[in-house]
Design goal:
Number of strands: 27
Structural class: alpha/beta
Distance between the termini: 38 Å
CATH class of the largest domain: Alpha Beta
Strand order of the largest sheet: 5-2-1-9-21-20
Strand content: 15-25%
Largest sheet: 6 strands, mixed
Radius of gyration: 22 Å
Helix content: 25-40%
CATH topology of the largest domain: FAD/NAD(P)-binding domain
Shape: globular
Number of helices: 12
CATH architecture of the largest domain: 3-Layer(bba) Sandwich
Number of domains: 2
Amino acid sequence: MQPEAETPHVVIVGGGFAGLSAARMLSRRQVRITLIDRRNYHCFQPLLYQVATGGLEPADIAYPIRSVFAANKNVTVLLDEAIGLDRQARSLHLKQSGWLDYDYLILACGATMSYHGHDHWRPHAPGLKTLKDALSIRRRVLGAFEAAEACNDPTQRQAWMTFVIIGAGPTGVEMAGAIAEMARYTLARDFRRIEPSQARVILLHSGDRVLRDYSPKLSQAAQRQLEELGVELRLNQRATAIDDHSVETGSGRIESRNVIWAAGVSAVAIARQLELPMMDGGRVPVTADLSLADAPNCFVIGDMAAARSDGHSVPGVAPAAIQAGKHVARCIRQDLRLRPRPNFRYRDRGSLATIGRNRAIAQFPLLTMTGFPAWLVWALVHVALLIGFRSRVVVMISWIWNWLTNRRGARIVVGRTRCSAQTPSEDMASSASVQSRGSD
């Protein structure tokens, strides 16, 4: 066994799909690994919308990072944040721990919501990227029905029961379908002064079809399934102004107290903070093996990387991040063997999107599916990708129960719900105080 000083030190920043994938592969090699994240858990982001709409609890989709590597003595996990980088000295500056030297650095810090130059909309139209976001949106959505029940003004009541989702990618489509399904079925018998099924769910999108990364046929199928749930599609329309009471579009004003942003992401600010080169959207350009052009021992992977494969941009999805993490681990292994690195090649094994109960679309290289078969495949794939046996069992049982009863069990509202006198900043402040198992 090599002395620790001679063992290559790999530092990984980010415990998402990409960082975790790289750490898992390297944990079986003769290297020292330090995995750094601002949170002590890995979050399964594709199911955040289920937490936001009461289908699952935070702990169902989060798993402690330390538990993942409890049996790997060569992996050290630090709850810390990168604030500086000296690529020439091969040293990373951490907020709590100071400077940390490395032989290889893997940056897998993810992405954040992009408001396309309108960051002042953020308090009025929260995005969905973290567990804290999901809990805040859940409280806003469920609190809106409570506010409508207590409201005597019909106009204000309708504003509380109008939900506008901006952006018709997978997150926007899944959120719109889940809220419409919850209003139509889950909450149908829970209130006395309002009819939750009369809630309006509006999906606003600047493009001419939903889920543009799917084939036109599947996009039309998704649109049809959304309309079956009562979702109003506003295509070729863009938000021009958002406040706490309405959304302005090119064709008029939508009175709504509930706006959710799902219209794009950008790389996190750490790329600028670490003085890395950036492209439009804040992503970091990388070479064919996912390393930096001027620092071959520094890799950037996942949502923050502007990677290409076979002449096409690599999408910011979980399978691509997992593949990138495994690829970087192979590159480091090849370096240690004094062999040439392979180029990264993304293999698209298919895409899945769910709209609601028994409603989904699936696109594979040789097969497409819609409806219940696609929904079943979506459920099985997502359960399989979850970390931890407990999470898989709990999520499967929850989904079976939800499917049999059309009920969502995780509809507890923690903290003060909004009322007509409350401002968005107050709502966000009370959200920040919410602590839940599996959250920050």
